[in-house]
């Protein structure tokens, strides 16, 4: 018999088998292949791409990094962590929607939340209320025995992947340079996830005026490929 | 709570100014006026039917440990404009943050325009501001807030200011619009990014929260193009939001004057005009 790999020893206990299964579910639910229509949204990035303000991989990296650190993805991560930690879902949903900078942001939150709730309802056989997407993910992952930082890292990875995928198709960018960018951002996802896991609702604040204004202006863009 | 805040403290400015306006024979009348410490409020029209209130921090600026609170209650059916006497200056604060709390309550069918003058953040400043508006079911509020990084005319750069500026509007106790701006050393280091401020040094938000607020968007769209000022508009579901950025505060204020004039159907508060820098 070959020497047992370290993970095999860990897997020997029921706790870790359950955790590994939960981790698989987490990856599935937060995968870009989970059919919530993530490909249809750019989080406002289409606007500066359409005007030529964001033209290349360096511009995309600066945009994605700034919005992740100071913008709505960080805010969404805090809402997700709060929902997962047991805060009142009605309060969180109202509050998150009240922070929407424009109707398209509201659409992005609610349409993805609705699609996510429908899928989780089918998978778990339970009735799942429709919530803004980050709140919905927080509620669904309450049942998963995985660290909150891991949920948040994957969630932020998804938010970045959504913007980078939009840029890859729109500009376009090469597949390999896009994947290299997403890989470079890994330390940022874990750092932001660690911060968001312990942040409170009072820490919700942003500083991305350019991205906020781009998202607002997107609604009057004449030719639109993305819904936001 | 008020008593606690009103205790004089050495080398720190504390102040509370509170105003209540009620309807008397169908006209607005002063019902409650409380002032303590370095916070003041006055009605430019004095004894007549007040339509404008002006709040003031007499300490001349905010620094570490200052606590200023402004409160205003507007009775059902009335219309009032409230503003601040001058620009608010947040100075270097080596110790704890300065705190500025604004608490506004608007009765059924009433309309409050809260249009404070700009806040200038100096290098090393540390300010926490909370603006909370409680609206009755069908009340209206028009809010504006302007932030300027450093004294632009002096060419000052700001790299280490800290700000947490939170605004929330509740209708029947439920949040309907929230906006929170955070500035710190890290976000200032990235402020020239396109998703941040880009070349701008001044920014503003205008929010009309009212049943049918989105109907006002059509008349504003033709005004969005303005020299040296970027403006974005979005309006939906009882909310109309404008965001502005500019390299200098003057084109920003000029553009705000156009937009607010359109939204109000009347002139800006007199103290804005008295500064002489609004045409």
Automatic annotation (TrEMBL), chain A:
One of its GO terms (cellular component) is cytoplasm. InterPro entries: UreF, UreF_sf. It comes from Gemmobacter aquatilis. It is found in: Cytoplasm. This is Urease accessory protein UreF. Keywords: Chaperone, Cytoplasm, Nickel insertion. The keyword Cytoplasm applies. It comes from the Bacteria. GO terms for molecular function: nickel cation binding. Belongs to the UreF family. Coiled coil: none annotated.
Automatic annotation (TrEMBL), chain B:
Required for maturation of urease via the functional incorporation of the urease nickel metallocenter. Pfam families: UreD (PF01774). This is Urease accessory protein UreD. Keywords: Chaperone, Cytoplasm, Nickel insertion. It is found in: Cytoplasm. Belongs to the UreD family. Its main location: cytoplasm. It comes from Gemmobacter aquatilis. UreD, UreF and UreG form a complex that acts as a GTP-hydrolysis-dependent molecular chaperone, activating the urease apoprotein by helping to assemble the nickel containing metallocenter of UreC. The UreE protein probably delivers the nickel. The keyword Cytoplasm applies. GO terms for cellular component: cytoplasm. GO terms for molecular function: nickel cation binding. The gene is ureD. The keyword Chaperone applies.
């Amino acid at each position: 018999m070959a020497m047992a790999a370290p993970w095999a020893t860990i897997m020997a206990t029921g706790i870790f088998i359950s955790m590994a299964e939960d981790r698989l579910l987490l990856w599935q639910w937060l995968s870009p292949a989970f059919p919530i229509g993530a490909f249809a949204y750019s989080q406002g990035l289409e606007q500066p791409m359409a005007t030529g303000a964001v033209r290349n991989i360096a511009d995309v990296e600066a945009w994605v990094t700034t919005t992740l650190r100071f913008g709505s993805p960080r805010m969404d991560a805090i809402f997700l962590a709060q929902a997962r930690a047991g805060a009142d879902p009605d309060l969180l949903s109202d509050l998150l929607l009240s922070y929407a900078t424009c109707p398209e942001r509201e659409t992005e939150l609610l349409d993805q939340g609705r699609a996510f709730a429908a899928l989780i309802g089918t998978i778990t056989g339970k009735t799942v209320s429709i919530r803004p997407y980050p709140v919905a993910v927080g509620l669904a992952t309450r049942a998963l025995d995985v660290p909150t930082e891991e949920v948040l890292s994957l969630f932020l990875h998804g938010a970045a992947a959504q913007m980078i995928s939009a840029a890859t198709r729109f500009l376009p960018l090469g597949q390999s340079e896009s994947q290299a960018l997403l890989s470079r951002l890994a330390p940022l996802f874990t750092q932001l996830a660690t911060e968001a896991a312990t942040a409170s609702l009072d820490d919700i604040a942003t500083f991305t005026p350019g991205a906020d204004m781009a998202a607002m202006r997107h609604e009057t863009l004449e030719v639109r490929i993305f819904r936001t | 709570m008020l008593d606690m805040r009103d205790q004089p403290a050495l080398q720190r400015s504390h102040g509370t100014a509170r105003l209540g306006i009620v309807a008397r024979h169908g006209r607005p009348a002063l019902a409650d006026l409380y002032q303590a410490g370095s916070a003041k409020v006055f009605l430019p029209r004095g004894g007549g039917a007040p339509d404008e209130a002006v709040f003031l921090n007499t300490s001349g600026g905010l620094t570490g440990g200052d606590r200023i609170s402004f409160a205003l209650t507007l009775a059902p059916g009335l219309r009032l404009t409230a503003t601040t006497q001058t620009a608010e200056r947040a100075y270097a604060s080596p110790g704890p943050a300065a705190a500025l709390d604004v608490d506004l309550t608007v009765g059924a069918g009433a309309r409050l325009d809260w249009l404070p003058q700009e806040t200038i953040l100096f290098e090393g400043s540390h300010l926490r501001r909370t603006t909370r508006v409680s609206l009755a079911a069908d009340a209206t509020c028009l809010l504006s807030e302007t932030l300027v990084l450093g004294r632009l005319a002096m060419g000052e750069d700001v790299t280490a200011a800290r700000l947490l500026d939170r605004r929330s509007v509740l209708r029947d106790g439920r949040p309907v619009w929230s906006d929170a701006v955070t500035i710190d050393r890290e976000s200032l280091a990235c402020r020239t990014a396109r998703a941040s401020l880009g070349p701008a040094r001044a920014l503003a938000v205008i929010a009309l929260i009212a049943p049918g607020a989105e109907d006002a968007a059509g008349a504003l769209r033709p005004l969005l193009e303005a020299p040296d000022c970027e403006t974005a508009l979005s309006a939906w579901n009882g909310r109309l939001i404008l965001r502005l950025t500019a390299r200098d505060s003057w084109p920003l204020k000029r553009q705000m004057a156009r937009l607010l004039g359109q939204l109000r159907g009347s002139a800006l508060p007199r103290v804005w005009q008295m500064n002489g820098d609004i045409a």
